[in-house]
Each structure stands twice: as structure tokens, then as C-alpha cells.
Q: What sequence folds into this?
């Protein structure tokens, strides 16, 4: 079994030039789900730029995360349409089921629950995105089923 | 360079900031009258492009070889001026700045513009005197032609050698172990990393095949000599016989940290409770344990939370290997809830599949090891829980091993007790930072995992190779301001070597066989603490010497009015705090006149004495707050020197408070202003020192005593060493030492006075004459004279049956 | 030698000088905020706006970055400029209401209140970037940087933790026009003792 991720092997993949930085950060994020201080420092040492450089870049793009995330990410839309059609109730439901606050990660690091501002899928309201997959017109029941599928698939 | 200095002075108006507050006409007029000033010009903004162009023109037209810019903060502006003036032929050290704006123009609301000009003149004259006293020294060029020596036995050796080979740089690996032994050691030093051993073997193979890498087998290192470009290192011969000598252009150290077993406080017994290194060995020699195997990541409790993630990674790969090899073991990784899981999402999935449990405990209460159970709390729950174990595996204790320390100290990388080798290193300006970091790789520098160690070796090799490339292109030069040792004067006492934190000083075979010292100009950061400490004043800071400081102090002191104070402020503490006074909208006592120094530790005692001698009634040194000094504990050295001066002042019958040390932080200008006020009040409240012949004689004697080798050697011996971890050092018998030092000072002071008196009188003197002349006790004088006579410092003759003395 | 006019005065400049530099050389003061003599101009705050006139046509430019050119006709105190300055000060007052320095400076130009909404009453930083520029260009260590973007933009060290790269020189504090850096620096430099958490 050789599935261990090793920061050095990610880094070694790219030449030690500034242009590599964004790709290295992406790969780190892909492998670890987030970019830790240690890993960012390693990337900077490799590329030869100060830590601030990578940090500014990582905070500039919304897609980079600097805090650990769960294995599964759940985004609940709270745009106007979804809000009206019961988005908040879905958030409550998920918070209760997963025992976690919106914006946080469960203690076992399995789920991260977040709210978003309108996913542009108002026709499907209320919408939840689970691991990049859209779940349209969610109800408490549907949520339960989705969570179960996740556990089953593991 | 011409011998007669030609100093140009440029006065900033800085819009209205200076012009609106200072009588510029008066200022310029007085500056022109200053000796050595060949040119003076008032400009709206010398620092903007039009101003820079004007300065360059003046340098060319008037043939200036050093300039003073009376403007604002040198911390902010100096780099710009230095860069701009390079092509006008002025190097670092030939440009000085006086902070006219923030130390004078904007902070003295109570003064008239003319009074501010008067103060400005004093500061400028001091700076001009400093520059005029400079004997310009050139930058040293360094060439590196010999191979790089990699020593220390660390695993990073191989990665570094491989990198050198790729770079086309020759290297020598000096190892005491063979490849197999190195691999075996990895179990112990990098537990749970067996999956990476294949990589290590590949690197080893590549290195073996490279014609650029030479491998030698050596014993313990014995000695290192020489400097960058030209080192020779000798090792013990493992086969017995003559030591092995290696010549190298640069040295790089690869040092692995070692693992120790945790103490019994966590239940370690080497059997059912062990640490990860032991578990790794057991796993690969005997096999996995059976039953409940619990890895307790106890780094937080052991006081090293920063290594918890390393221990977690170790536990994870060991635990995983165990479960994959045996279905009779259950692995639990038990960790503090504050330590984040260092696993990727994929690894977490694997972990779940393998049934590895991760239990986070609340560190409020330290978990307790009990027979077969661990008791602990979880977050937000008061219930005490139990975790059963059959085999408990603790985090290893990471230390720097004996061997690593030996190698490090051979390379002058000072080791502080309880610290890893990558300890805080004085950062002066990045281009001045020594190469210390670059030449060190491996977990003894700072704990890391195996692949990081290899990467460090590789990266350090890249840095080293860059230095070599520079030297090949003929572009490797030392900074302009570095310490230089005059071997004619050096007695080889070794004080400088001990005090230097950069590891720049080494032994050379001196004149007449004495072991003198030499500075490696590429490593020297120009802190100047060593130079100020040298008993013989054999070491000096080129382009920023003590002679210059004395000139600056003297020139300022001559100008000071009775109630005014001469001050020295360091870049990082005192001077920076003063720079920020105006910004914070505060006012500063105008009686304080501050001279810039890079660090308080650079101020030789002679400089302080010179200020007092030439007219100052109070002298204060503003350094950094304790433990924040940027230069090898310079502020502590300042403390020792100031206290010596206090003793001398007392011996001469002056008030000890005429010299003082203070601490300042750049971000606390309020505090600084208060300290200034407090001290100027003290000095203003005292009668000024009457400059009578008697008093001048005493002040002269104080100055001479600060140059006395015996006094200086004793003083140096007491200065805080880089490895001492307490402010002002951790001397064994501090009081005892101080009492003895006071005695020696008294003796040398008295003898200095006698010598001076005898020289001044020119004819033999009786004890009584001298006692009257020096206004001192007759018996004491007699005692001193007898001692001096026995040491051959004075001659005794008899005239009219009375003993007379002469030099 | 370039020839042009500032406030109807004939001035001369070398190629490469900016309008601001030329004006200052002639003793004409233009207020600035994000400009500091020690670093490259960035043109971020727009306080140094001047008016360029050519016939009926006029244009506003930031003098700290606008290069001197032959034949320019520059006005530093026109009515339009006064209005723009007021407007900028009002913006600044709404963006960093907590800075006494900014309030003082605005008051000097007669601005004491703002029409704009105050987003964060605690904010004291105007994001002029002087601190990060001085840290990078003068000190050369890049210990601090601008992070995030939009309304979340802020200044600090990575992960808001003490940065080992910081040499604690205080240059950033000295150049900060609002006093904001003085309140942030302790987080950046940490305590030196903590920087060496190397305890074995
Ligand atoms: S160097 Fe400093 S004081 Fe002189 S003009 Fe420039 S900013 Fe002003
Ligand atoms: S302190 Fe001075 S005399 Fe002593 S070894 Fe160093 S240079 Fe030589
Ligand atoms: S104090 Fe630190 S952050 Fe500020 S300029 Fe200096 S190095 Fe940069
Ligand atoms: S902290 Fe000060 S210098 Fe830095 S961006 Fe904010 S206002 Fe500008
Ligand atoms: S640097 Fe401030 S006292 Fe040494
Ligand atoms: S000073 Fe010119 S844009 Fe800020």
C-alpha cells in the first residue's frame, strides 16, 4: 500500500520556481484537504519565496483552505430562494444530525458543514451540495438518505 | 582612496517638516565651519530623485569620499542612499545619517528654530567626526575552488551529495558508518518511516555511482581550521594510525537528532510501556504486538507540543504497519484534542478501514497511566473515562545527541543547552545573515521527518552551490563592515571566538607561533561585539571602528552644554524608539543628544570614557530590552561595561550616575520618552564636572584604564556568552568575581594615575609629592609604587636619602 | 531636461522623475498618504491627486506615480482637487474610523465627518500597503503581507502567528501613516523567546 501522502513528493513534482506555487498549493489542498502552516512553509522553501507570498496567494483565492476540513463537505444554500424554501431548516437538521455548527467540522473530521450565499440553482431550491454533487429540493428525509449513502459508500 | 577625508553634508528640508522648524540658514552656516566638511548643501528632499541626482553631482564635483545626510530615520532611508550612491563610488560605511527630523525638528516644541539648529549642529558634527576618522577598508573577495565537505553522519548527507553531483559540484562525504549501518539507525532516529527506506537506498546508489562524490570513512572529527574557501578538517583514523586530513572549500553539516525514552513519569518501563523508536525496532525484528496497542501522543504533556504532529505521523505509520501485518492487534492513537489530525482525507479513510481508533482527550487533566488502563477526560464532559491497553507506546523524546553537539561546536555552531541547533540566529539585515542556516541539515537542527531531512540536505546543497557559483563568477564578496583582526596585536586569548555567535572566528597560526584568531569575513555579520571585547583592541570593525565611535563621542561631548546628555542608541532598540517619538506625537527632552550605533554591545568602554573626558556630564546607552538584542547579547555586554565605568567614576570621586544603561522598545516611545526625561533630570540636577586640571587628570586616567589589557581581559571574561541563557549571563560566582574585578580596577586605576603623573612631571617624584599631586592616601600610593617597581613599571632611585620614582 | 508648469510656475525635470518629486523639488507640497520616500510609489490612496489641464480638457492623476512630461500644465490646489481631496478624506474616515492620525490629517483639510457608511468602527488600517512594501523592499524579509481580498482584506503575518522571518526592526511601524501597525506588530514579531521554541 503506497497511499501515504508525503509533502515532499508533492513538492518534488514541480520545479523550484515561483510559477509552481499555485500548483503546489492546489496539490497540497487536494491531498490533505487543506494547507497547513508546515506544508505551506515546505512549499515556500522549495520555490524560494517568503511565507507571506504563499499565504497572500492562498488567502486571495477562495478555493484554498487553511483549516483542516472533513472528508465530506456539505454546503447548504441560503440564497434568497433557498432561504424562503426552507434552507435554514435544512441547516438546523444537519447541525443536529452531525452534531456540528455550520461553518465547522465534526470532531471525527468526517463532515464539514457550510452555508453558502446562492449557488445559482434557485430553480432547485432548497439546494444542498454534498461532495460537489447537487442535491435538489432537499427535505429532512432526503438529507437522511444522502448521509446514509455516504456511510454506505465508505 | 585619498588620505584627507572630504566629507559632504546634505541638509534635508523635508518639505516643511524640517525647514518649518529649524533655522536652516544658521544650521548650514555652522556646518560649513565644521572641520573636515568639504561641502554642505541644503536640499528640499535629498531622498527623492531630484535630490539624489543633486547629491551625486556634488560627490563628483567636489570629490567627496564620505557623506552625511541630515534627514530622518536611517533604518528606513539608508538602504536607498547606499544603493543609489554605489555608482558614485561610496560603499556602505561611507554614508552616515543624522535624524534631524525625528530627533530634533519635530520633537522639541519648547525650542526656537535657532536652538533646534544648534542641537542639529552638534549631532551633525559628531557624525562628521565619525566619518572623518574612518580608514576605509575594502570588501574581501572570496574564492572557493576546493570541494565541499559534508560531515556529521546525518542521513541528509546522501541527499546533499546527490544534489551537488547534479549541480556539477565536487563533494566529499566524510562518514563513520557504512550504508547499512546508516539505514539501521534510521529505525531509531526516524521511527515509522520504513516505507521511505527504498528512497534512501536509491539516493545512496546514485551517490555511489557519481564520479563527483568522494566517500571517505573517518572516525570522530578532531579539528577544523581555516575559513570559507580554504578549510582543513582532521578526523580520527578508524583503522588507527595517522589522522585523516581533508581540504575543503566549504563545510556542510548533516546531523540527525536522537531519540530518548521518555521518563518514568509516563510509565515508561521498556517492556509494556515503550516509545516509538523501541516499537519500530520490535515491529521489524519480532513482529506486531497483540491485543490493545495504544499510542499515546504525549508531546503536549512532555512540554514539546510542537513535535506532536511528528509523533502522530510516526504513530500512524507504525500503527498502520502493525494492523496490516496482524489481525490480532487493535491500534488506538490517543492524542490531545488540540493537536490536529495530520492525515489526508484518503489516509483517514484507510485508517477507518483498518479500524485504527483516534481518541482525542481534553488536556485540562493529564491522562494517567494505570495498570492496563489510561484514565482521561474528553471535551465538555466531566466523566472520567478509561482506555484499556496491553502495549502502551509513547512519543519519543527528541534530543541533540553528543556526536551532533561535538560536530556543531567544531563548526562554531554554538549549542545552547536544551535547544536544537537551529536556535535563533541574530538577523541583522538579510544580506548580512551568516551562512549558518544554509550549512546545516537534519533533525538535529530541528526535529523533522525523514523526507524533510533529505529535502533539507538537498536545499542546503543548492544554497551552498549558489555560493560556489558566485565565487566562480568572481562575485563573492564580504560585507563592507566586518571584523578584522590585526595579528600583530592579537595575543590569542580567544575571547572573541567565545563571544561570537556567528561562528566567524577561528584559530590561525599567528606570528611567532602564538595561536591568533582570524575572522571569516563571509560569516561575520559585523555586529562588532567581539571587537569591543578584545583585550588588546587587536580586533576592529572595519569601516565602523571604535576609533570612529570615539571621534563621534568626543566631537559631541565637546559641544554639549553642562546640563546636556550624550546618548547612544542602537538600531533595534534605542535609536528606533527615538525615531518613533515624533510619529506618536510626543515630545522629547531636548537635552538628550543621541548618537547612532548598530548595537550597544559595539560601544567600547573607551568610547564611554572618551565622552566623559571630552565634556559630557552624563552618558546614557539605550539598548534593546533584555533578551531582544540582535547581536550576540550586546546589550548585556553594554551592561558590564557601564558598570565598569561606574566603578571607575566612583574611584575617581565622581557620581556613578554619570553613566547609565537603559532599555527601549521601538514600539514603546512613551516609555522611552519617560526614561529620557528621568535621566536628563538626574544629570541636570547635578553640578557639572568641573573641568579643573585635577579632574581632567582623573578623567584621563579613567580613559587610559579602559584601554588597560588586564582590565579589558577581566571584563571580557565576564561578558555573557552565547550559550548562557540568562540576562547578563550566568556566572558561577558573580559577586565574588565582581569584588575581585573592583579590586583590580582600583589597582590599575591608581597605577595609571601614577604613571601619568610621573610622565607629566618629567622628573623623579617622592611618595609625598605624588600623594599631594593626586590627592590620595600616602600609604596606598607607597604600596602601589612598590608593586609597580617590582613589576618594572617604574624605577626607584634614591635622592637625598629619600625614595624617588620615575618612569 | 523636461519643461512643464506646476501652478503656473515653470519647472524643469529629468526623465524618470514624477510630478510629485518635481513639485517637491520646487517647494510645492502635495498631501500624500500611501507614499513614502523609502519605497516605490504605489498610487493606491489617490490623495496626491493633481489636475492636468489642456485647454478645456482636464484630467486628474496621482502625482506620486505620474511621470513628468514636457508641456504638462499641473494644478495642485484647484477647486476640483479640493473636492476630490475632501471626498477621499471622507472615504478614509469611513474606512478606518479608529485612526486618530487619519482624523487629524482630515481635520487639517477641513474634513471632520463622512457621508459614507462606516463598515467597521474598529478599523484603523487603510490598506495602503506601506508596511508590507517597506518590509519587503527595505528590510528585505517579507514578514507581513496583504491577505485575502475585498472586504476581508487585511495586513498581517501568515496564519496570524508570529513570523520567524520578522527581524523586529520596527520599520513597518515607522512608516504606517495611521498608527495601525503599532497595534499589530506584537503579533507579528512575537517574543524572541517564543521564536526559539526549540526546547529539546
Ligand atoms: S531623507 Fe527623510 S528627512 Fe530627508 S527629505 Fe527624505 S524623508 Fe525627509
Ligand atoms: S579577543 Fe582580541 S586578542 Fe583575543 S583572540 Fe580575539 S582578536 Fe586576539
Ligand atoms: S518589524 Fe518585522 S514586519 Fe515590521 S518591517 Fe521589520 S521585519 Fe518587517
Ligand atoms: S498597517 Fe498601516 S502601513 Fe500597513 S497597510 Fe495599514 S495603514 Fe498602511
Ligand atoms: S541590538 Fe539593541 S542592544 Fe544590541
Ligand atoms: S500618495 Fe499618491 S496615491 Fe497615495
A:
Amino acid at each position: 500500500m503506497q497511499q501515504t501522502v508525503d509533502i515532499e513528493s508533492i513538492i518534488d513534482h514541480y520545479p523550484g520556481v515561483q510559477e509552481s506555487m499555485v500548483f503546489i498549493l492546489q496539490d497540497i489542498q487536494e491531498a490533505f484537504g487543506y494547507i497547513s502552516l508546515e506544508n505551506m512553509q515546505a512549499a515556500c522553501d522549495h520555490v524560494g519565496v517568503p511565507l507571506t507570498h504563499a499565504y497572500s496567494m492562498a488567502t486571495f483565492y477562495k478555493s484554498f483552505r487553511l483549516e483542516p476540513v472533513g472528508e465530506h463537505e456539505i454546503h447548504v444554500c441560503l440564497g434568497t430562494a433557498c432561504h424562503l424554501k426552507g434552507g435554514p431548516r435544512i441547516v438546523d437538521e444537519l447541525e443536529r444530525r452531525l452534531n456540528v455548527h455550520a461553518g465547522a467540522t465534526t470532531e471525527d473530521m468526517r463532515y464539514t458543514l457550510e452555508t453558502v450565499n446562492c449557488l445559482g440553482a434557485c430553480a432547485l431550491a432548497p439546494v444542498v451540495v454534498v461532495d460537489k454533487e447537487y442535491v435538489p429540493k432537499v427535505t429532512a428525509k432526503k438529507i437522511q438518505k444522502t448521509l446514509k449513502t455516504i456511510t454506505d459508500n465508505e | 582612496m585619498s588620505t584627507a577625508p572630504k566629507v559632504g553634508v546634505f541638509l534635508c528640508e523635508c518639505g516643511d517638516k524640517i525647514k518649518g522648524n529649524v533655522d536652516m540658514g544658521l544650521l548650514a552656516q555652522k556646518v560649513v565651519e565644521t572641520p573636515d566638511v568639504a561641502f554642505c548643501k541644503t536640499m528640499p528632499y535629498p531622498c527623492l530623485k531630484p535630490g539624489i541626482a543633486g547629491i551625486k553631482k556634488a560627490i563628483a564635483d567636489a570629490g567627496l569620499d564620505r557623506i552625511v545626510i541630515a534627514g530622518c530615520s536611517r533604518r528606513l532611508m539608508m538602504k536607498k542612499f547606499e544603493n543609489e550612491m554605489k555608482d558614485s563610488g561610496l560603499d556602505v560605511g561611507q554614508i552616515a545619517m543624522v535624524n534631524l527630523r525625528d530627533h530634533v525638528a519635530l520633537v522639541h516644541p519648547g525650542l526656537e528654530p535657532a536652538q533646534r539648529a544648534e542641537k542639529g549642529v552638534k549631532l551633525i558634527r559628531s557624525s562628521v567626526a565619525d566619518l572623518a576618522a574612518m580608514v576605509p577598508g575594502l570588501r574581501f573577495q572570496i574564492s572557493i575552488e576546493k570541494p565541499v565537505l559534508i560531515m556529521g553522519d546525518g542521513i541528509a548527507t546522501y541527499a546533499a551529495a546527490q544534489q551537488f553531483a547534479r549541480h556539477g559540484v565536487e563533494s566529499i562525504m566524510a562518514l563513520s558508518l557504512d550504508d547499512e549501518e546508516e539505514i539501521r539507525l534510521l529505525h531509531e532516529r526516524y521511527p515509522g518511516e520504513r516505507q521511505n527506506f527504498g528512497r534512501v537506498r536509491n539516493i545512496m546508489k546514485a551517490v555511489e555511482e557519481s564520479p563527483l562524490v568522494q566517500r571517505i570513512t573517518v572516525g570522530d572529527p578532531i579539528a577544523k581550521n581555516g575559513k570559507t574557501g580554504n578549510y582543513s578538517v582532521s578526523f580520527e583514523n578508524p583503522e588507527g594510525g595517522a589522522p585523516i586530513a581533508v581540504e575543503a572549500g566549504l563545510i556542510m553539516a548533516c546531523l540527525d537528532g536522537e531519540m530518548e525514552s521518555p521518563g518514568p513519569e509516563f510509565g515508561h518501563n521498556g517492556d509494556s510501556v515503550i516509545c516509538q523508536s523501541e516499537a519500530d525496532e520490535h515491529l521489524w525484528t519480532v513482529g506486531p504486538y497483540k491485543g490493545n496497542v495504544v499510542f499515546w501522543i504525549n508531546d503536549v504533556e512532555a512540554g514539546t507540543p510542537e513535535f506532536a504532529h511528528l509523533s502522530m505521523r510516526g504513530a500512524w505509520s507504525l500503527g498502520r504497519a502493525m494492523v496490516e501485518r496482524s489481525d490480532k492487534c487493535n491500534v488506538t492513537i490517543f492524542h490531545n484534542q488540540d493537536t490536529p489530525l495530520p492525515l489526508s482525507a484518503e489516509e483517514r479513510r484507510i485508517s477507518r478501514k483498518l479500524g485504527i481508533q483516534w481518541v482525542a482527550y481534553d488536556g485540562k487533566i493529564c491522562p494517567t497511566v494505570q495498570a492496563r488502563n489510561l484514565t482521561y477526560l474528553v471535551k465538555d464532559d466531566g466523566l472520567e473515562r478509561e482506555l484499556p491497553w496491553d502495549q502502551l507506546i509513547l512519543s519519543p523524546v527528541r534530543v541533540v545527541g553528543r556526536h551532533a553537539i561535538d560536530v556543531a561546536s567544531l563548526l562554531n555552531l554554538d549549542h545552547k543547552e536544551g535547544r536544537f541547533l537551529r536556535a535563533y540566529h541574530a538577523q541583522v539585515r538579510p544580506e548580512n545573515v551568516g551562512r549558518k542556516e544554509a550549512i546545516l541539515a537534519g533533525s538535529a537542527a530541528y526535529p523533522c521527518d525523514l523526507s524533510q531531512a533529505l529535502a533539507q540536505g538537498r536545499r542546503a546543497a543548492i544554497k551552498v552551490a549558489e555560493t560556489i557559483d558566485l565565487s566562480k563568477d568572481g562575485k563573492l564578496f564580504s560585507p563592507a563592515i566586518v571584523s578584522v583582526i590585526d595579528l600583530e596585536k592579537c595575543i590569542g586569548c580567544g575571547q572573541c571566538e567565545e563571544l561570537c555567535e556567528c561562528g566567524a572566528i577561528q584559530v590561525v597560526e599567528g606570528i611567532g607561533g602564538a595561536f591568533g584568531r582570524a575572522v571569516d569575513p563571509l560569516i561575520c555579520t559585523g555586529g562588532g561585539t567581539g571587537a569591543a571585547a578584545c583585550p588588546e583592541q587587536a580586533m576592529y570593525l572595519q569601516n565602523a571602528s571604535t576609533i570612529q565611535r570615539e571621534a563621534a563621542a568626543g566631537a559631541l561631548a565637546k559641544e554639549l552644554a553642562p546640563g546636556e546628555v550624550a546618548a547612544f542608541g542602537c538600531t533595534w532598540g534605542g535609536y528606533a524608539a527615538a525615531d518613533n517619538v515624533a510619529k506618536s506625537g510626543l515630545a522629547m527632552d531636548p537635552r538628550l543628544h543621541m548618537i547612532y550605533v548598530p548595537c550597544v554591545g559595539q560601544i567600547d568602554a573607551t568610547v564611554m570614557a572618551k565622552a566623559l573626558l571630552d565634556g559630557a556630564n552624563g552618558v546614557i546607552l539605550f539598548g534593546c530590552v533584555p533578551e531582544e538584542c540582535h547581536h550576540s547579547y550586546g546589550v548585556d555586554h553594554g551592561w558590564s561595561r557601564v558598570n565598569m565605568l561606574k566603578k571607575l567614576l566612583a574611584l575617581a570621586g565622581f557620581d556613578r550616575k554619570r553613566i547609565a544603561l537603559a532599555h527601549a522598545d521601538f514600539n514603546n516611545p512613551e516609555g522611552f520618552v519617560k526614561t529620557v526625561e528621568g535621566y536628563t533630570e538626574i544629570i541636570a540636577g547635578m553640578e557639572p564636572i568641573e573641568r579643573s586640571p585635577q579632574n581632567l587628570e582623573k578623567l584621563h586616567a579613567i580613559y587610559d584604564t579602559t584601554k588597560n589589557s588586564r582590565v579589558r581581559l577581566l571584563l571580557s571574561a565576564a561578558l555573557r556568552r552565547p550559550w548562557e541563557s540568562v540576562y547578563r549571563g550566568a556566572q558561577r560566582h558573580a559577586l565574588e568575581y565582581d569584588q575581585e574585578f573592583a579590586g583590580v580596577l582600583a589597582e590599575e586605576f591608581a597605577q595609571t594615575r601614577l604613571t601619568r603623573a610621573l610622565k607629566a612631571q618629567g622628573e623623579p617624584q617622592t611618595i609625598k609629592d605624588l600623594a599631594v599631586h593626586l590627592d590620595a592616601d600616602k600609604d596606598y600610593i607607597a604600596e602601589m609604587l612598590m608593586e609597580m617597581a617590582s613589576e618594572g613599571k617604574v624605577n626607584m632611585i634614591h635622592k637625598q636619602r629619600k625614595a624617588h620614582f620615575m618612569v | 531636461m523636461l519643461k512643464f508648469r506646476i501652478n503656473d510656475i515653470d519647472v524643469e525635470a529629468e526623465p524618470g522623475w514624477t510630478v510629485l518629486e518635481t513639485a517637491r523639488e520646487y517647494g510645492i507640497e502635495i498631501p500624500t498618504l500611501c507614499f513614502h520616500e523609502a519605497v516605490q510609489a504605489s498610487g493606491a490612496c489617490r490623495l496626491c491627486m493633481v489636475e492636468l489641464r489642456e485647454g478645456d480638457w482636464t484630467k486628474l492623476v496621482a502625482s506620486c506615480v505620474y511621470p513628468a512630461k514636457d508641456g504638462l500644465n499641473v494644478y495642485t490646489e484647484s477647486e476640483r482637487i479640493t473636492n476630490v481631496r475632501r471626498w477621499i478624506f471622507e472615504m478614509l474616515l469611513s474606512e478606518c474610523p479608529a485612526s486618530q492620525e487619519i482624523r487629524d490629517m482630515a481635520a487639517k483639510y477641513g474634513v471632520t465627518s463622512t457621508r459614507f457608511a462606516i463598515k467597521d468602527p474598529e478599523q484603523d488600517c487603510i490598506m495602503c500597503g506601506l508596511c508590507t512594501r517597506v518590509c519587503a523592499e527595505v528590510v528585505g524579509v517579507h514578514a507581513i503581507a496583504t491577505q485575502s481580498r475585498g472586504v476581508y482584506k487585511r495586513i498581517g503575518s501568515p496564519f496570524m502567528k508570529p513570523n520567524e522571518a520578522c527581524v523586529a526592526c520596527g520599520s513597518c511601524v515607522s512608516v504606517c501613516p495611521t498608527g495601525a501597525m503599532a497595534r499589530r506588530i506584537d503579533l507579528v514579531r512575537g517574543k524572541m523567546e517564543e521564536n526559539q521554541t526549540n526546547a529539546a
Summary: Residues 424-434 of chain B have pLDDT under 50 and may be disordered. Chain B has 26 helices and 33 strands. The pocket of iron/sulfur cluster (ligand 4) is lined by residues C 125-131, 155, 176-178, 180-181 (CB under 6 Å).
